[in-house]
Amino acid sequence: MAAEVRSVAHEEVHTSTGLSNAKLGMWAFLASECLLFGALISTFLLYRGREVSGVTPQQVYDIPYTSVSSFVLLMSSLTMALSVAAIRRGDHYQTRVWLMTTALLGMVFIGGQVYEFTRFVQEGMTIKTNVVASSFFTLTGFHGAHVTGGILMLLSLFAMSLDGRLPTERGEAVELVGLYWHFVDIVWIVIFTVVYLIPAPTPG
Amino acid sequence: MEATREREAVVERAAEVHHPTPKDYVKVAVALAIATALEVALYYVKLPHALMVSLLLFFAVVKFSLVVLWFMHLRFDHPLFRRLFLAGLILALSVYVIVLAIFGVLV
Questions:
Q1: Over 80: is that where the pLDDT of B67 sits?
Q2: B 47-86: CB under 8 A from A
Q3: What's A168's DSSP letter?
Q4: pLDDT digits (tens, 9 = 90+) for A172-204
């Protein structure tokens, strides 16, 4: 009887904690990532109030443009959640549809970031212009690299599913990539508010 | 006796494992979109700096919590995952708030 009920609780696995080690590992990794992005955001905040020569990020921001990018990334979290829900139901077609949609939305975000960086460089702000620009490009570049890593994971899952190597029993792989993807989204929520929307203090 | 207790514990866990429906996810996404629109609107409204910063941070916290609790399932998952993530988050917040305060960024 216990075994029957156990099969109802999908999360119940045979480990000493009764929890999936892979999922615990992913949460531990995400907790450590909080420290990484915390350091990058703090560095930007430390430098952005300084008096520097050359163009600063605040002078070249295009808020309407970045708002659309932020919206795209937020919606990719919805499609990711729908993909996880689909694999739980055993609906592989829907899983693939939402995985690919999430990857495409991620690509739109990255394409937008590449365009934004190109425009900033054309307007005279490069990574070497001053410390504010350096910390800005480092922070947003690291985030972009994480999104790119996420896209590669999503495309791998899509290919595995097409190949029949992602059965419902291995649905946890989609959930783990989903956790990573949502984390990248929450980091952007913080970056968009703290870096783009909150005005920099006047140097002095 | 022991088997019954084990069964009860597993039933309890099964009841805890509740997954939101796609409809719930869409509702959360709509709330996220509205919060983002309000944030962007605030950027263009001329408000006192302290009020603007407080409101922007409030919306960021709301969006962050919605994604973590619903999309990442922390609201429904085992408490150990929540504690693990909160440990990293609180450690990061404490360390960097102290650093920023020392350098006078927060005052």
A1: yes
A2: 49, 52-53, 56-57, 59-60, 63-64, 67-68, 70-72, 77-78, 80-81, 84-85
A3: G
A4: 999 999 999 999 999 999 999 999 999 887 765
Residues in CB range of B49: below 8 A, 6 or more apart: A199
pTM: 0.90
Residue contact A33–B105, C-beta within 8 A: no
Q: Which residue in the set B13, B19, B96 is minimally distant from A42, CB to CB?
A: B96
Note whether A193 contacts B: Cβ–Cβ < 8 A.
yes
Q: How far apart are the first and last CA of chain A?
A: 71
Q: Collapsing DSSP states into helix, strand and coil, what is residue A72?
A: helix
Asked if residue B10 has pLDDT above 90, the reply is no
Is the sign of the CA dihedral B68, B69, B71, B76 positive or negative? positive
Q: Are B96 and B103 in contact (CB under 8 A)?
A: no
B57's tokens: 């941070």
> If you search the block for the tokens 């990711």, which residue do you land on?
A80
Nearest partner of A34 among B49, B96, B66, judged by Cα: B96
What angle do helix axes A131-162 and A92-122 make, rounded to 10 degrees?
160
For chain B, the 3-state helix, strand and coil shares in percent, each to the nearest 5, are 80, 0, 20
DSSP state of A29: H
* Neighbouring residues of B86: CB distance < 8 A, sequence distance ≥ 6: none
